[in-house]
Amino acid sequence: MIQDYQIQEFLRQAHRVGDAGLTLCSSGNISWRIGNEALVSGTGSWVPTLPKEKVSVCRISDGEVLNGVKPSMESGFHLGVLRERPDCDVVLHFQSKYATVVSCMTETPKDFNVTAEVPCHVGREIPVIPYFRPGSPELAEAVKAALKDHNSALMLKHGQVVCGKTFDEVFERAMFFEMACRIIVLSGGKYNTLTNEEIDDLESYVLGKKG
Question: Domains of the chain, with CATH numbers?
Answer without folding.
Answer: 4-210 (3.40.225.10)
